[in-house]
Amino acid sequence: MRILNEKFNTIINIHMNISKxxxxxxxxxxxxxxxxxxxxxxxxxxxxxxxxxxxxxNAGHTIYVDGKKYKTHLIPSGIFYNVKSIxxxxxVVHPDSFMKELKYLRENGFDTSLIKISPKAxxxxxxxxxxxKDKYKDxxxxxxxxxxxxxxxxxxxxxxxxxxxxxxDYIWDEVLDGIVLCEGxxxxxxxxxxxxYPYVTSSTTLPYGACCLGFPPQKIDKIYGASKIYDTRxxxxxLFPETLLDDEILMSxxxxxxxxxxxxxxxxxxxxxxxxxxIVAINTSGITDIIISKxxxxxxxxxxxxxxxxxxxxxxxxxxxxxYINDSITSFCKYVTTISYSGNVEGI
Length: 348
Ligand code: IMP
Ligand code: MG
Hints:
alpha/beta, binds inosinic acid, four-stranded mixed sheet, eight-stranded parallel sheet, 9 helices
């Protein structure tokens, strides 16, 4: 009973000591430069923790620090700026890949003692990876064992991080205090509930999922939404047919935009921004600040189009296109207070 009371007291303290939570999530199909947004926030504002709330090493974060490019798959981007980095309870961890990432970060001079894993996170085993390769090929997964691992978790047959010897030095004490930033993985349309099921991932990519880290929703302040100015899809999805790769302008966006998967090395299918879908993603996620990146790519290919009300609209230049996007978001998305555009790899 005493132990239980102590545990409950800790939980009460967790809530008392968190001053606020900001969240950053993706509004498309992943690959929206969330890592860049997180890096920008951590550089410019104070955060005590950066936390991942879902997914595993199916994600890929590309971060530029002082002009140098770094990649991680599971570890939150806060690590590049010396912030405590938490892998949350609804994440899945493949221990060998985690160890490799630690080694890579250590070799590059980052302080890996700041990285912790929730004891409740689930373990991806070699059997999960094999099952993914054998049974989920038609869904174009990243082959990292994600679906089989979550299947075992929800079937209540999984293994948790707290039970794995090699992770014992990295287990999180489940305390959060101060100012917390939650870093999303994947994007709105890959969410297990909201995406084009079954062409989705197996976790929650919307801000509602972040609450699994152990804070009450009342603590949420800003919700940053990352989008690209054109849509991309890595992996199989009938909403993103392979025929898009035959379109010459879209193909030049693939080349100029470097639309090749960070995790899989596959060419991403590109389509014009679907503003109808973006508005749904913004409103369902409660986005307060939106960051639309890669405008430099459209400028370089000199083509400015988007779908709105199911119609393809063409603009003369980037200014006209941005004005249209701003007007639409201002009219239809009442929680949004700022809209920013980004056209380079490091800044916003
Ligand atoms: P899984 O998450 O490996 O099971 O893959 C399920 C689907 O989500 C596939 O279409 C993947 O290509 C896609 N996916 C998973 N993670 C990412 C990501 O970080 N960026 C883009 N697509 C992703
Ligand atoms: Mg990514």
